[in-house]
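Below is a filled-in request sheet from our internal design queue. Each sheet records the structural input a requester submitted and the sequence that came back. We keep these sheets so that new team members can see what a complete request looks like end to end.

REQUESTER: design group, bay 2
PRIORITY: normal
MODE: inverse folding
CHAIN LENGTH: 261
BACKBONE (tokenized):
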């Protein structure tokens, strides 16, 4: 954990000290699209309906890589890679409250990104040979999830999620929106069979300011996602004296006794 914190702090220092040497007036847009949910009952970037127990903390991180996350049309070829690759470390923390509410914090940090031809997205008069900074801080997200229907009691569950984005991303690195943002979602999941769980999200993302990349405008969006969780197969369980147990009923299967003659 100390090594992880040192890596985050050093990355933030580099992004703050080195920003002036790179391209200016890039679009104010958080290019990173993998934004994982922070709860222990969530499916990667899809929220589940359950919440963590009261005062139960969780900590973790994801490391993801994106190849050519931004392409724009050009006169020389069909699509031009403005950003060739991007690697992001997403540090997260989560806390359950009153067995009904879950509060999560997500701090994404771009560890490495390489720029291609930025000229198509730069304003007129900018240096055509400009590059983009390799390390930067992204906008952080604070989320609150409220459980509405308990999955363990009804075999299906539902929760309401409200997440806010704080625009502290490093300028001119395409790691942060210009203004605040809010996600409002409904999360639901259901047990199907043998512990298989199916979940889905549907919601809306509000952006306080519109971002422009050439002639494209990026504003509010409809959010949706579907995920499935499949538990690992379990070997047949042996009961007392080595007798085989049925894993669904969890009862010992006894051999049949024939009537005596």
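RETURNED SEQUENCE:
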């Amino acid at each position: 954990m100390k090594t992880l914190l040192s890596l985050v702090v050093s990355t933030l220092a580099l992004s703050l000290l080195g920003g002036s040497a790179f391209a200016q007036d890039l679009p104010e847009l958080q290019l990173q699209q993998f934004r994982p949910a922070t709860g222990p009952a969530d499916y990667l970037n899809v929220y589940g309906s359950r919440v963590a127990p009261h005062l139960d903390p969780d900590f973790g991180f994801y490391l993801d890589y994106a190849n050519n996350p931004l392409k724009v049309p050009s006169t020389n070829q069909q699509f031009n890679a403005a950003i060739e690759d991007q690697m992001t470390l997403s540090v997260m923390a989560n806390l359950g409250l009153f067995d009904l509410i879950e509060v999560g914090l997500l701090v994404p940090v771009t560890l490495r990104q390489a720029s291609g031809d930025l000229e198509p997205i730069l304003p007129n008069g900018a240096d055509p040979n400009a590059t983009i900074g390799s390390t930067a801080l992204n906008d952080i997200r604070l989320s609150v999830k409220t459980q509405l229907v308990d999955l363990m009691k009804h075999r299906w569950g539902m929760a309401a999620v409200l997440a806010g984005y704080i625009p502290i991303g490093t300028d001119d690195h395409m790691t942060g929106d210009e203004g605040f943002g809010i996600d409002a979602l409904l999360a639901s999941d259901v047990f199907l069979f043998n512990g298989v769980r199916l979940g889905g999200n549907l919601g809306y993302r509000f952006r306080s300011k519109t971002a422009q990349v050439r002639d494209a405008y990026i504003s509010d969006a409809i959010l949706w996602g579907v995920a499935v969780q499949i538990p690992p197969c379990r070997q047949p369980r042996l009961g007392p004296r080595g007798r085989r147990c049925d894993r669904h009923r969890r009862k010992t299967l006894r051999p049949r006794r024939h009537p005596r003659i």
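SHEET NOTES:
- The longest helix spans residues 2-18.
- The mean pLDDT is 80.
FILED BY: M.R.
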